[in-house]
Write a structure and sequence with these properties.
- It is a single chain.
- By secondary structure, this protein is mainly α.
- The chain is built from four helices and no strands.
- The chain has one domain.
- The chain starts with a helix and ends with a helix.
Amino acid sequence: MPSHAASLLALLCLPLAATAQDPDRGRMLYDTYCGECHYARVHERPRASSAVKNLAELRDMVASRAALTKYRFSLDDKEEVVQYLNSSYYRFPK
């Protein structure tokens, strides 16, 4: 029975591993698909003049802009872009 329980535990952990975010992949996605319309300096605006005030707004902005690209972003893709932008520019608490 213990090996069966360990197998079940391993299966339950698979979705968690699959949803781990990769900011490096987020940067690649951003550079490849988002850079066509704007450049990274747009994220360096003073916070007072930024359209993005928190992590939820960053997620909303990435989702709305992702829909305008040629690439079909998955939920994980969008979250990886969010994590890249947040760790590189915004630094909102998680």
